[in-house]
Amino acid sequence: MRVITYGTFDLFHEGHRRLLERAKALGDYLIVGVTTENYDDSRGKLNVRQSLMDRIRNVQESGLADEIIIEEYEGQKVQDIQKHKVDIFAIGSDWLGKFDYLGDYCTVVYLDRTKGVSSTQLRNETAGVIRLGVIGSGRIAARFVAEARYVSGVSVEAVYSRRFESAKAFAERLELEWANENVSDLLKHVDAVYVATPHDTHYDYARQAIEAGVHVLCEKPMTLTRAQTTELFELAAQREVVLLEAVKTAFAPGFQRMVAVARSGSIGQVRSVDATFTKIVKEGRELHGEDGGSISELATYPLLAVIKLLGTDYTRVTTHSLRPEGSEVEVYSRIDIDYPHGIASARTGIGVKAEGELVVAGSRGYVYVPAPWWLTEYFETRFEDQSKNKKYYYKFDGDGLRYELAEFAFMIRNRTPESFKLRAAESIAMADIIERARTDAETFD
Ligand code: CTP
C-alpha cells in the first residue's frame, strides 16, 4: 500500500514525527509532500521559519519517508495521488473533513494530532514573541491590530494616542494590555512600534522610538522630505534597529512577482511606467493644511511602482497639479519622472477619479495591471503578437497589512537591517520625489 501525506514541517517536532510514523504504518511506502515558500505565502501561512531545503532535510532525517515531493500549488494533491498511484492519503486531525474530496481517488485517513506541540508554538518559544506598540488610534491602526493576528510571533500589546481617551477606548476595544499616556511609557513596554499617525508627526515618533532602541514600522509616507527620511535611516543603522516604511504593496506576493516578470526581460527593456491612484475624499485632514493634498496622501503607491521598475537614478522630476478654486490643496497631480533610459508618470487624485491602473511598457511588450493594481491580484503581459499574451493570478489576503508586518518581524528576528522588497534608498527616493513634487507643483486654477 502506498501512503501520502503533506505538511510544512517547519522546526520539525514530535507531532510531525508521530504523524509520519503512523502514516507509514498504514502501508509499506510513504511519500511526503513538503510545501514550497511560495505555496505557503499564497495560502496565507506567513512566518515559516525554515527554508524549503531545511524542511525537506527535516523530513529526510526522520528516516520515515521513502520519497519526498514538493507541494507547490493548489489542487496538486489530486494529481499527485493519481501520478504516484497512492492508496491512502493521511493527514492530521486538525484537517478533519477538509480532504474528504480526495475520497474519489483513494482512502482518506485523519490521524489524531499530537497534543501540546506545533510549529507555531515553537516559533513563538524559540525566538520569543515580538511585542508591538501602536502609535495612533485611527482606522488604519485598528486594521493593523486585526491583521497582526495572522502573523505568528508578534503580539500587539500597547497603544499611544495624542488623546488618552482614544487610546483607552482603542485598547479596550481591541483587547490590548496597555493604553499609554505618553510615548516614552509605550516604548518601555515594547520591542517595536507601528507609527500610524498624521504624516507630519511620523518623523518625531520614529526618531524617539529609534533612539530608545525600538524597531519602527512607519506608515507611508515616512516623512515628506528627503533629509528627514535619510536621517531616520542613518539613525536606525547607528542604533541597529529595523526601520521599514509600511508600503503594503511592496510586500505583497503579486506585486513582487509583477516586478520580477517585468524586469526579467520578458517585455524587453522597461522604458515607461504609468501608475495612477485616486480616491475621492470628501472631508478630512487630506483636504487641509500644509501637508494635505493628493501627493502627500497617495503618491507613495505609484512612486513605489516607478522606483521598483525603473530604479532610483532618475534625472528630473516635473509636476503638474490641479487646485480648484476654493480648495486649500492640490486635488490631482501628475508627477513626471525622467530616467536616462525611460520615463514615468505617477498620477494621484483626491478630488478627481480616474482609472487606477498600472502600465509598464517595454521594448518588446508591456505589463498591464488593472485597478486596484496596488493590491496586485492579477496582471497580464501583452505583446504585438497577441497569441503571446499571458495572464498571472495571485492571492492578496485581507487588506495586505499582514505582509508588511510579516516582513518587519522577519527582519527583526533575523537581524536583517534591510529588505530587498523595499530598500532604504528606495524609501529615500520616494521621499525625495514627493518633496520635489510638492515644492515644484505647477498650479492651474
Ligand atoms: N501534526 C500533528 N500533530 C501536531 C502538529 C502537526 O499530527 N502536534 C501534523 C499535522 O496535522 C499535519 C502534519 O503534522 O498532518 C504537518 O503539519 P504542519 O502544518 O507542518 O505542522 P504544524 O505544527 O501544525 O504547523 P503550524 O503550527 O505552522 O500550523
Low-confidence parts:
none
Profile the largest sheet: 9 strands, mixed
Estimated radius of gyration: 25 Å
Q: CATH homologous superfamily of the largest domain, by name? A: Dihydrodipicolinate Reductase, domain 2
Number of helices: 16
What's the architecture of the largest domain, going by CATH? 2-Layer Sandwich
Per CATH, what is the topology of the largest domain?
Answer: Dihydrodipicolinate Reductase, domain 2
Count all strands and give the number: 20
Structural shape: globular
Task: Kindly name the structural category.
Answer: alpha/beta
Mean pLDDT figure: 95
Structural overview:
β18 and β19 form a beta hairpin. With 445 residues, this protein is of the alpha/beta class. It is built from 16 helices and 20 strands. The chain has helices spanning 14-25, 37-42, 52-61, 76-83, 119-127, 139-148, 164-173, 183-189, 199-211, 226-239, 248-251, 253-262, 294-298, 300-310, 401-413, 424-440; strands at 2-7, 29-35, 67-71, 88-92, 107-111, 130-135, 154-160, 178-180, 192-195, 215-219, 243-246, 270-278, 316-322, 332-339, 342-349, 358-362, 365-369, 378-383, 390-393, 442-444. The strands form 3 sheets. It has a 9-stranded mixed sheet. Strands 8-7-6-9-10-11 form a 6-stranded parallel sheet, with helices on both faces. It has a 5-stranded parallel sheet with strand order 3-2-1-4-5, with helices on both faces. The chain is globular, with a radius of gyration of 25 Å. The protein folds into 3 domains: 2-111, 3-Layer(aba) Sandwich (Rossmann fold); 118-246, NAD(P)-binding Rossmann-like Domain (Rossmann fold, 3-Layer(aba) Sandwich), CATH 3.40.50.720; 250-444, Dihydrodipicolinate Reductase, domain 2. The structure holds cytidine-5'-triphosphate. Cytidine-5'-triphosphate binds at residues 7-10, 15-16, 19, 91-92, 94, 113-114, 117-120.
